[in-house]
Amino acid sequence: MKKHIILLSTILFSTSFLAQNKGLVANSQSPYSKLQSVGLEDVKWTNGFWKEQFDVETKNTLPYMWNLYHNDSISHAYKNFEIAAGLMKGKFSGPSFHDGDFYKIFEGMAAAYAVTKDKKLDQEMDKAIALFAKVQRKDGYIHTPVLIDERWGTLGPEEVKKQLGFEKYNMGHLMTAACIHYRATGKTNFLNIAKGVADYLYDFYKKASPELARNAICPSHYMGIVEMYRTTKNPKYLELANNLIDIRGTTDDGTDDNQDRVPFRQQTTAMGHAVRANYLYAGVADLYAETGEKKLLDNLESIWDDVTYRKMYITGACGALYDGVSPDGTSYDPTVVQKIHQAYGRPFQLPNATAHTETCANIGNVLWNWRMLQITGDAKYADIVELALYNSVLSGVNLEGDKFCYNNPLNVSDDLPFHQRWGNEREGYIKLSNCCAPNVTRTVAEVGNYAYNLSKKGLYVNLYGSNTLNTKTLSGESLEIEQQTNYPWDGKVVLKITKAPKDIQTFFLRIPGWSQDASVSINNKNSTDKIISGTYFKINQKWKKGDVIELNLPMPVELMEANPLVEEVKNQVAVKRGPLVYCLESDQLPVSTSVNDVILNLNSDFKIDFTELKNRKLITIEANSTIADNSWNKTLYKPIAAKDGKSVTIKLIPYFAWGNKGKGEMTVWMSH
Q1: Cys bridge to 411: 167, 353, 487, 632, which one at CB 3.0-4.6 A?
Q2: 621 pairs with which residues across the strands?
Q3: How far is residue 135's CA from residue 85's CA, in Å, rounded to a whole number?
Q4: What is the residue-averaged pLDDT of the chain?
Q5: Whether residue 327 has a cis bond before it, omega within 30° of 0
């Protein structure tokens, strides 16, 4: 009888929560979240840019990654689960974050399934979940490096060392993937495993010493545990999330590299490893949405200002330095100054050829800003989501969807006289550090959920792309719209009302911060209300089927300059059009000419035209330039050449598409 009651309660729980919590973040009941997610299945791309990208995702990237991570001759991820489950004898192989990489691919599968309802995806996921269940220890613990040694070897005191190896990170991605799977399928098989993990972590942090508790590199588990609380409403998970913040920075062995040398409530600037930092900030934003602790939001806003106005690239990329120091050399005590990998660096320290800008850090920037948008409703956060998605996230994958970048430099030069740890060409599998490929895989599958938000006030339109939205308002009424646009190539956006509530319905259209002179019309009648860039434009009235809202965002070519404190690009310009940053590749130049020799003519006509690359249509920008007569062999300084250089017409392509024509040079910033 008891089993039947539990089963019934599970079904009721599933039905009631699926009705409200079907987005990437299940914040429909988060008291301090102003905006709420639409369902994962509510948005379907119909044509244009994101439809093309979603097709590449489902036809190429997901199958490629799923097969790759089952191929133990290349990646040992799935094989590690099989060994940990006792299906065969063997040793753990691969990076310690292999488990988490597989969970990220799984999350991408679940998000794609929510839209496509592809039965094959469902079957593959169920097969993997059954394996996870065999791996999981009775106390809920799951981390294959430890479990393999437990089953087949001797674990001993090195367990602590293994916990430093991304144990909580892997568990965080498991919990997030399980929540997405539950919302996409309605099944609780993976969610039940995630409950075991969350319960284990709750018990672990109750009794662990502060030194052991801080062994949590790259805190994806902050987002994961809050999402588990939102999904199950188990109050102890929220208690755990609070505890995770409280214990940060309370030990003597904390590091800026892991953002735990000082408590988070004392942090007001971005520091340390950019991926770990951005994941932490996203997790803290999730926690604020549930608790409303003002200090958390104050610090997040202060850190956001530091990143956005002093430490972020024009592409939305984060983490400038391969290796940096903290606290930025302000102390003469060498025990205080710490070495940091993938560092945020000092304010305005933004090198280009040696930019680290890991794809995961850029995705972390999206995750963080997305959550800041939810809790504030401020369009400036949506601007960063858009900037990073179109530029520094999509640059992490080739146009065909099967090769990936670990880092995303803004300049690639043949003459760079040293070898960098990470190359400047995309690879199908980045040995020992392939974390970015699974991350971009799940991100592209989930972009549709970023497009819209619901609030008590109305519908927020965040991202533009041809799609259909079929959702319900917070009062439970049907709302269906069709968006038609060729964005980001064109700034005309048409929203057709298919179904709307009988009473007044409000739409909030994001007017990008980059835009000027935007206009809005309703049923061909121009709105006279003031339109302000970097805000949401409010339209409030009753609607009928067939009504049309038209937004026009002029997209002139813009020449961008940096704050003069960014020494690396002083007296240089970058080219931007709409949300897209452009770059120059060496295939546009005469043989033996470097992109670094190009002087851009600022008075060019900057003609735009469509071109096709790898079956994708892209807008290119044609400009006039001069090639300087520069021979720098064994030369560090020399007088400026008196004679004029050679005039050359060049074509710039969107930055996200660089490197798709083979090896060559590339630059975003050019002399003028």
Answers
A1: 353
A2: 608, 652
A3: 4
A4: 92
A5: yes
**Distance spanning both ends of the chain, measured CA to CA:** 79
Reported residue count of the chain is: 672
DSSP string, 461-509: E-S--SEEEEEE-TTS-EEEEEEEE-TTT--EEEEEEEE--SS-EEEEE
Q: How far apart are CA 280 and CA 256, in angstroms?
A: 12
279 C-beta neighbours (distance < 10 Å), count: 26
135 contacts 118 by C-beta, under 8 angstroms:
no
The DSSP symbol for 662 reads B
Classify strands 505-511 and 492-499 as parallel, antiparallel or unpaired. Answer: unpaired
Give backbone dihedrals phi and psi of 37, rounded to 5 degrees, phi first.
-75, 145
The answer to whether 45 and 467 are in contact (CB under 8 A) is yes
| Cα–Cα distance measured from residue 290 to residue 226, given in angstroms and rounded to the nearest whole number | 8
* pTM, full prediction: 0.95
Token pair recorded at residue 333: 């005590």
Which tens digit of pLDDT belongs to each residue from 450-478?
A: 999 999 999 999 999 999 999 999 999 99
Q: What kind and span of H or E run contains 283? A: helix 274-291
Q: Is 473 exposed, middle or buried (0-12, 13-18, 19+ CB in 10 A)?
A: middle
8 A C-beta contact, residue 627 and residue 644: no
**What integer pLDDT is reported at residue 19 of this predicted model?**
39
What pLDDT is stored for residue 157 in this prediction? 60
Q: Which two tokens stand for residue 81?
A: 């689960």
Picking from 244, 90, 234, 113, the residue whose alpha carbon sits closest to that of residue 171 is 244
Q: How many helices (H) and strands (E) does the chain have?
A: 18, 24
What pLDDT, in 10s, does the model give residues 145-160?
A: 999 988 887 665 655 5
Q: What percent of the chain has pLDDT over 70?
A: 93
HSE-CB at 621 with a 13 A cutoff on CA atoms is 28
Q: Which amino acid is located at 191 in the chain? A: L
**Range of lowest pLDDT (163-172, 259-268, 338-347):** 163-172
Measure the CA angle with vertex 428, ends 425 and 431; round to 5°. 85
Q: Which 3-state string (H, E, C) describes 375-436?
A: HHCCHHHHHHHHHHHHHHHHHHECCCCCCECCCCCCEECCCCCCCCCCCCCCECCCCCCCCH
Tens digits of residue pLDDT in 421-435: 777 889 999 987 899
For 563, the 3-state DSSP assignment is coil
Higher pLDDT, 206 or 518: 518
Taking alpha carbons only, the member of 105, 44, 102, 34 closest to residue 440 is 105
Which two tokens mark 530? 């003031």
What is the C-alpha to C-alpha distance for residues 606 and 621, in angstroms, rounded to an integer? 6
Long-range contacts of 296-305 (CB under 8 A, 24+ apart): 296/245, 296/264, 296/265, 297/375, 299/264, 299/265, 299/267, 299/268, 300/372, 302/268, 302/269, 303/267, 303/268, 303/269, 303/270, 304/368, 304/369, 304/372, 304/381
Which secondary-structure segment (H or E) carries 574?
strand 572-577
User: Is pLDDT above 50 for 9?
Assistant: no
Looking up tokens 């999330």 gives 241
> 102 φ, ψ to 5°?
-65, -40
At 640, the amino acid letter reads I
Sign of CA dihedral 300, 303, 307, 308: positive
Alpha-carbon distance of 614 to 552, in angstroms, equals 29
pLDDT score for 330: 56
Q: Which residues does 332 contact at the CB level (< 8 Å), separation at least 6?
A: none
